[in-house]
Amino acid sequence: MQLSTKARYATRAMIELAFNYGKGPMQLKEIARRQDISEKYLEQVLFPLRTKGYIYTQKGSRGGYSLSMAPEEITLYDIIQTVEGSLAPVACVDNAGACNRVDICVTRDVWSRLKNIVIQELKSINLADLVVEQERKKKESGSNIMYQI
Asked: What is the reported pTM?
């Protein structure tokens, strides 16, 4: 299983917004610059997160993007599922009709357990956790390097 660039960029942008939580909106170009992401692509990545209500936009000269709730309330699962959709490694996990071997296939059971484990792990991590971890890594490395997820 491999997450798309969209999922990785969405997570990085959301962490950036979590660092800025409570300090006012961040302009798209600033998020894009800090995370080395194309503004056009970042706007597409953030659209489903805005539609789902995790972020909001404010128009005007002091406008930009902000988290719509506290970083503790948004999990990594919320972000990934919003931009990726299902986390099932194979289609038959979510759609039994995708395969005529569903009733006898032992690997489907493995793939289903794998999906559940991934979801459980992603739900156990919120943006506040990632902000704390990023701060720790910055201190340990002694640098101000931008992060990659």
From this structure: 0.87
